[in-house]
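To: structure desk
From: M.T.
Subject: fold request, one chain
Message: Could you run this one when you get a chance? Sequence is below, nothing fancy, just the single chain.
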Amino acid sequence: HKILQVEYSLPIAGQTIWFSGTISPMQNDTVVWVARDITERKRIEMETLRQKQYFESLVSNSPVAIVVLDNVEKIVSGNPAFENLYGYKSAEVVGKKLDELITTEETREEAARYTQEVMNQAVHAIGKRQRKDGSSVDVEIFGVPVMIDGQKSGAFAMYHDISEIIRARHEA
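Reply: Done. Structure tokens follow.
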């Protein structure tokens, strides 16, 4: 006789009402069923999920390369534009140090300084970064620390490919 936990919904007065039920067997033919109305909790969960999907969609569809770092400067995620800009698939970069992937010996120190700064303050810079294939790309870098409930939880960085602008400036 084990206690069962279930969630279910019922249409009541034209609305869907959600319940959390605890079913406790007493004897062979008797159970105690305790039901709690969890409609508001379900509404909040669904709204939270909708907001999460909305923001994930914005990041995923952004034409700007976006990477999210944790507190120890490791990549949590990169969007498709990041994959396209640097030539890495997300699975290859998650858990790795950003600066080890997209810098050269010449740019590593500067990049490391930006990465440390962005953990505490906004960063805006222009620099060269390296793609997976070894080619270099001129980028405008925007980064901000990510705070959740007053706690630092990493950083959010955007890279805009400005190679064409730099090339046009040199030609002019």
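Reply (cont.): The beta strands are 4-12, 15-27, 30-37, 65-69, 75-78, 123-130, 136-148, 151-161. Let me know if you need anything else for the meeting.
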